[in-house]
Automatic annotation (TrEMBL), chain A:
Record carries keyword ATP-binding: no
Species annotation: Cloeon dipterum
Protein name: U3 small nucleolar RNA-associated protein 15 homolog
Role this protein plays: Ribosome biogenesis factor. Involved in nucleolar processing of pre-18S ribosomal RNA. Required for optimal pre-ribosomal RNA transcription by RNA polymerase I. Part of the small subunit (SSU) processome, first precursor of the small eukaryotic ribosomal subunit. During the assembly of the SSU processome in the nucleolus, many ribosome biogenesis factors, an RNA chaperone and ribosomal proteins associate with the nascent pre-rRNA and work in concert to generate RNA folding, modifications, rearrangements and cleavage as well as targeted degradation of pre-ribosomal RNA by the RNA exosome.
Superkingdom of the organism of origin: Eukaryota
Pfam families from the UniProt entry: UTP15_C, WD40
From TrEMBL, chain B:
Localization, UniProt: Nucleus, Nucleolus
Biased composition (Basic residues): 782-794
Pfam families the record matches: Beta-prop_WDR75_1st (PF23869), Beta-prop_WDR75_2nd (PF23769)
Source species of the chain: Cloeon dipterum
Oxidoreductase keyword on record: no
Region (Disordered): 749-796
Gene Ontology, cellular component aspect: small-subunit processome
Residues annotated as domain WD repeat-containing protein 75 second beta-propeller: 340-652
UniProt name for this protein: WD repeat-containing protein 75 second beta-propeller domain-containing protein
Predominant location category: nucleus
Amino acid sequence: MGTFKPLNTKVFTKAEPELSDEAIYWKKFTAPAILKDFGPIDYIDVNPNDPYHFAVTCSVRVQIFNPVTKAVYKSLTRFKETAYGGKFRHDGKLICAGGDEAEVKLFDVGSKNLLRIFKGHDGPVHRCFFCINNSQLFSCSDDKSAAVWDIASEKIVAQYRDHTDYVRAGAVSPVSADIVVSGSYDKKVMMFDTRTNEVALTLDHGAPVESVIFNKTGSIIISAGGTDICFWDALAGGKLLSRITPHHKTITCLAMASDGLRLLSGGLDKRVRVTDMTDLQPAHVLNYPSPILSIGIESNDKVLAVGMVDGLVSVSRKIEEDGKGKTPRIRYTLREWRKREQKLREFEPLQEADTTFTEKERQMMSNIDRYLRSYRYSKALDVAMAMYNTKRKAESVVTLLQELIRRKGLATALAGKDDHEIAKILKFFSKHIGNFEYMPTLIDATNTLIDIYGEEINDMPMALDACNNLLSTIHDEEQLTVKLLELQGAMEMLKIASDSHKLAPNSKNDYSVTTEEFPSTL
Amino acid sequence: MITTQEEFKLKRVAGGSITEHRPLFSSDSLYIYIIWDDGVRQYSLKTGKFVQKLETPNEVVELLSDPEDKNLLHGFTSAGELLTWKQDTGFFENKKTLALKLSSEKKIVGLHLSSHKNAVVVVEDTEKQIQKFIKYNLKTNEKENLTVIGQVGKFSSSVGSSDKDEYLATIHIYNLRVVNLNSSEKFKHSVNHEWGSFTCVRSHPKQNLIATCDQSGRILIWRDVMSFQAIKTLHHWHKLPVSDVVFTGQASSFYSGGFETVIVKWWLDGSQSRDFISNTGASIKNMAISPDNKYVAVGMADNAIHIVNSQMDIEQTIQHVSTHFEDRPGVKPIVSRMSFDPRTKALVVNGRSGHVQFYSVENQSYMFLVDVVGENYLNQQRGLDMVNTEVVLTAMSSDGNWFATVEERDDGLSHLECRLKFWSWDWQHKFKLRTSIENPHQGRVNDIAFQPVLGDRVNRLISTGMNAKFITWCKSEEDSLWTLEFVGKLDNLIPRPVEFSSDTSLFAVGFESTLSVWETSAMEMKSCLTRPDASEQINFVKFGNDASSRYLVAASNSKIVIWDLIPLQVVKIIGLKVVWLAANPMNDHMAAFTEGGELVVFSPSEKAPICRRSILSGKKVSSALYWPHDEVQSNAVEWQRLAQLYVMTDNQEIFTFVTKNEENRDLFNPVEFPNNEGKTATPLAAFVAKQTLSQVKKLEPLPMWKQQVNSYQGSCLKMMCETPSHMLPPMQMLVGDLVNEYLTAQSSSNEKPQEFFKAPEPMEVIEGSSTDSESEEEGSKVRQKRRKVKTKKLRPVEESTLQSVAKLKFDWVEMLFDAVEITSDEE
């Protein structure tokens, strides 16, 4: 009451989905820092211990970064050829990595010393892991075998040659030192038991397996390959629990997050999808600039590092909420600051007055609204066009035009403009008249403009030019509409044909039902 | 014919203007008196709440405070009675009937009281269209006709006083006339005709000051009017006619308001400075000032009275049913249909332009407005027809969580603006806009309906539009966005009404004259119901509830057709010019309102109507709904025990039907029994409970229609009546049977008694049903005609001819048709 309602430009803006709790959670990460490396980021592993250093395996080295400073903490460079799969031991003191040299190398993180070299594979080793007992290593190799090594003696404990193609994925059970899992390009996931030295389970994933992990309790094996993620029951003989397809391109990596409650999957579609492990429903999406090859996340989401094909690593940290992290500095806008200052200086009356009056707060409004309010339509249009020229906000111009049509003030607003201004407005019309949402307004506005300047436009060279442009744009739009209508007609014919075929047995109902995309263009 | 003979009356629940007359402040400036309905109501300025009602025998036309005793309040009625109350207690003091002896064409419209208790009665001559004035001495009862005239209008005369004299100022087109009430001296002042005629006059009660306003928006302040050389000063800001103006007590400033929706405060110190309250949303009708000059009461066209303080802030608003006032000359404002909000127990009706109001029927009070369009109200401008966006349709989901509105702006020059908006109930007790869909149907939206919320919590809405499609909108799981789910159509017929069945498994869409029934889960059309003679557009579709859940009722301009959904047959046709059809959610009753103001309550499964009465004659029904009672009301009208029927007329007055018992007490008394939420279950809960009870109903006897249909068993006629024309076998196969049947029918004359509900079958065939709008009378004529045909005895010659025709083979007809087809193909 008594207040001027400002123009609502939201009408022409796309609806944004509401923030779910999950989205708010994933937004509570710091802005990602981008690190650049030379080749594709093969593997990222986060040290489970504070301060959560993360190891990035890329080209011929394994680099360990500090997540706070984003600086290189240690660089392990004792590789002659490309290194793969650098993985921390559970205490974070040792690191193992495979490579094209067909060896698994074991380093001491603190001193960068090469402690052990495990030789015995005939092909490059892409993944290697410390078993839960910390005395054994598990490696997956392109020689179609997976092997378990004794760290102390550098000897093979067991080697499994059951796969028929490269073994590029693997995992060790988080609960048993004897259970290891490998995933291969032969589309199979196999579970080996070192006690029996036999294949305990063979699971058919259906696509070359890129990544395999266990859930937190070790009861579910999660395999990724192609665009599918499969959930297998590791205890009930490898029953397929569920299959989800969160990505539309190949999934390259998996990681458990939020203490086992969320599954992160990265794919070549440049997205990391967060899946809720309780109901396997998609929970959130994180977007990245390039196809994703590797994800490293601390088990409680303290550090998230994502590696991409072009050597980018995006690192972000979770903001602490319980006062441990930085408290965000309050940023005041000028207006808020003034208000605050005024409040501090506010006069406190000592006695109760008969009547007290509070100062009226002035309504803040944009220049466009201010001119609209005082019926200065031409000025309002000038401001909106100037704003469009600097900020490219078409919706505010269209909203204003619609409001002027509503107020019957468009003719007033458009009258008395010079050649240059008219040309600008016409250019705006021809650029946006194809937009489905703007079209009705712009058609009405164009009609009004032609009504006003129809006579004089021949004396306005720039406007005439713009007018011809608009004409050809409209012509193109018409052509497009005709083509789309033809297409729609053809499609509807097919649809009706299929419907009538379906209804043939009880053809007493003579009707047709069509579903179509809404809103149809033009 | 009419089964229920219970006595019931129409009772107004809400509506009616509170701003027709100027309000009056109490002498202590704590209360304000307002004339509404059949009495004077007192409201508190501090809280804006209703305090008490002062009963009056006749309609009050003027409220006045006594110039001598400040504690007295006078009300002047149209019957010439001067009523007196005490302001502090509200007690009625006395009644004095003024001996005026007026002729029949004269009507009392007002009264002025000067400070020396000189009364001037304003009388309107309805024949000559002028106002006349009678000076009346209240002490001696002497009366004297004053020889001045005034133009017809609320504020075309005013009484003021100078130092010693009292005068009456009147306006008549271009003239301001002033009469000295003591000496009867007269003065006339004229203005330039270019300015347009006067609209109102107001004199200062104590100083020699008069303000007049004119059509062009100018305000003239006249000083020293009791001379022929009056001094006038011009105040011009308004662009449109000014409705009313009021001086402050010391005449240092005055307030004015008109059609601009702006309240203006002027200063009379020569500075020409002004203060404004703009965008009040409605034009201003009248103004009154409190005795202590702190407040001004401004009566608005949307049935609100704003209390404005001297700092030009609206401190309080007294609002009754927010009316959608007529702002475009000659264009009747749109009144959307009523909905029922189970959460706030409010009737949802559109309020002032672009707003939807929630009106509590229990407390009989306005609750709040929701700004639907979010645009500034555009007042009319000279030479321009300003069209505001209006709310045309509303729908409330059955659980009250979701609210949908359709708004529209069509000025005939630019593209039609149409928006479908979804609002959700917020914990802060406001409706929050969640989704707004621009132009959902590339044209007007005809109807919207929510799917009733049962256990599965599916939120779905169906809208039908002029693009010959209906669209189902569904709320997405994770957020509150509504998105398109399915688009359905039937040829290129335009769908209008849409309605869900109570169990939500089906919904019906009326496509012009064809009724289609769809399955909700599969979004598939189950059946398409067309009557052979149907050419009228269907306006209302309702599924039966409870025992009648197998029936589907469709109402067009001239008749109600009841379909049975199991055999897909017409059960009966009722010839009524239906303007609104409402279904009772608690049982299987339906209420139809006809053009002539008739109310017909019926049940689809029963033969005779439950109630049929012409009770609304002279009123135009714009919508009606059943309001479920929390518990069975034993006092209520028989058919209203489970749910109360409310009717809204086109001028936004809401009525209901009450028995004599109920009339004496208020339907819902807000003072003694405040709305006790904790005690009673929601209406929806009552509805659910009712359903479980009704499942163990005893078997009902076979309804009449069934018996009637059975008597036609095996008849060819019956098949022709009940089968849609496109499903009938070729005509040559039917001819033989039909003639045979006609002959056998001669022997048995099964004449049926005349009934209110007529069986549709025989009539259709014999009449050939070519009439588009068959009224009730026409229908009865047809029936008589049919009877004549049936009872007519055939002569033996005719009979033998028919017999021979029956034996004939008609294969040649078929061959002939084939031959014709072949030849045409060849061409």
